């Protein structure tokens, strides 16, 4: 009885080995693709998610701008997708401009960012008392420039300005409006 079971086991092992070797001979040199369920999703890979994100840039020993967000997803292409964003630019004369928004992105290699409206407008508030509101805002951090192609409203102590499309320095001292300009000067 022991011999019969031994021969059955040996026969089974030899049959499995023959199938494995035959499969190898048939498939060698062939490219085998994995099912799509096993492949990672195409696109940029998420590296890390975090609550509480801080990012800043210093020039000549002083912070020229700083960014805070409630949460961030960091990707391998150096992009961070942010929620509840606050960017504060400080000029050498200590004037500040604060950009606020609910969602956006930042290129962590250079600080360039975009902020967009979700339920509340994107806002820029300056220490000089100006308020700019719009649906989206792009920021070139190194050049301290913001722009939008959306409708906007700008309110200050001496002016109310609205239009479509705007390019400005972050403290809103120099502004270029693209279309449909309406302005009211106040005393």
Write a structural description.
- This protein is mainly beta and 187 residues long.
- The protein folds into 2 domains: 1-32; 46-185, lipopolysaccharide transport protein A fold (Sandwich), CATH 2.60.450.10.
- It contains 1 helix and 11 strands; from the N terminus they run αβββββββββββ.
- The chain has a 6-stranded antiparallel beta barrel with strand order 4-5-8-9-7-6.
- Strand 9 (145-155) and strand 10 (159-169) form a beta hairpin.
- The chain starts with a helix and ends with a strand.
- The mean pLDDT is 86.
Determine and state the CATH class of the largest domain.
Answer: Mainly Beta
How would you state the average pLDDT, rounded? 86
Strand elements, count = 11
Q: What percent of residues are in strands?
A: over 45%
State the order of secondary-structure elements, H for helix, E for strand: HEEEEEEEEEEE
Q: What is the annotated CATH architecture of the largest domain?
A: Sandwich
Rg from alpha-carbon coordinates? 30 Å
State the end-to-end distance: 111 Å
**Lateral arrangement of strands in the main beta sheet:** 4-5-8-9-7-6
> Main beta sheet: strand number and arrangement?
6 strands, antiparallel, barrel
Alpha plus pi helix count: 1
CATH superfamily of the largest domain: Lipopolysaccharide (LPS) transport protein A like domain
Helix content: 10-25%
Total number of distinct structural domains: 2
> Rough shape?
elongated
Provide the structure class. Answer: mainly beta
* Oligomeric assembly: single chain
Would you give the CATH topology of the largest domain? lipopolysaccharide transport protein A fold
Low-confidence spans: pLDDT under 50, at least 5 residues? none
